[in-house]
């Protein structure tokens, strides 16, 4: 699974840097799709074109203020992810809280970046997140695991496990899904991979793979789902590489 991704990433790396405007258009396309799909998975009803115009500063009639803020906030959170990558900063619990604060800014400021103080349940899932008094300890365990056990992992495995373990703890009242997908892409982007998009139409497979991971400790389905989307993003970038003319082609 990872060998195919490694080959495609090497092919992409050999053709870096991509032309400036090509790179800008790829970035805009993926970031829009990432924002639209990540919000749609959580129930936001804005279409992808409506999401685009909200990012351009236009209000969409008949949609809630929350839905507008979810779009704007997600783009701000992506910018923060890019900043972490650019500065080559190691992942910290403080960064995770900052990401969540950006996701929930203006929506629920009292819980933005603050661990939950109430029990929550995940609709449709067998797994029940831990009670609030265990969250700080479990987040500490997550960070220790990340710092001591993930160095030798493939970035796709590391990012997938970080996402799955984090969302299993469900440390915040709201915004855990968006934050977990931001963390996943943060790990991928740190290692030079393009960000991926978990598509809303694949929501059922995504939720089922996560629930299986949380209830059985088997993460293979979820890692495979993420790997498929990594390959999709790599293929998109590779499609932008102009083929080199053959030496035998007529001049």
Any key phrases for this structure?
disordered C terminus, globular, Fic-like fold, 63% helix
Radius of gyration from CA coordinates: 19 Å
Q: What count of domains describes the coordinates?
A: 1
Regarding quaternary structure, how should these chains be classified? Answer: single chain
Q: What average pLDDT do the residues reach?
A: 95
What's the shape?
Answer: globular
Query: Hey, roughly how much beta strand do the residues contain?
Result: under 5%
Instruction: Give the CATH topology.
Output: Fic-like fold
CATH architecture: Orthogonal Bundle
- The stretches of 5 or more residues where confidence is low (pLDDT under 50) are 246-251
The CATH superfamily bears the name Fido-like domain
CATH class: Mainly Alpha
Total number of beta strands: 0
Number of separate helices: 10
What percentage of residues falls in helices of 4 or more residues?
A: 55-70%
Please give the alpha-carbon distance between the first and last residues: 40 Å
Structural class: mainly alpha
- Major β-sheet profile: none
Order of helices and strands: HHHHHHHHHH
Brief account:
This protein is an all-alpha fold.
Task: Describe the 3D structure.
The chain has 251 residues and is mainly α. The chain has a single domain (2-239), classed as Fido-like domain (Fic-like fold), CATH 1.10.3290.10. It has 10 helices and no strands. Helix 1 runs parallel beside helix 10, helix 2 packs across helix 4 (65-87) and helix 4 runs antiparallel to helix 5. The chain is globular, with a radius of gyration of 19 Å. The model is unreliable at 246-251 (pLDDT under 50).
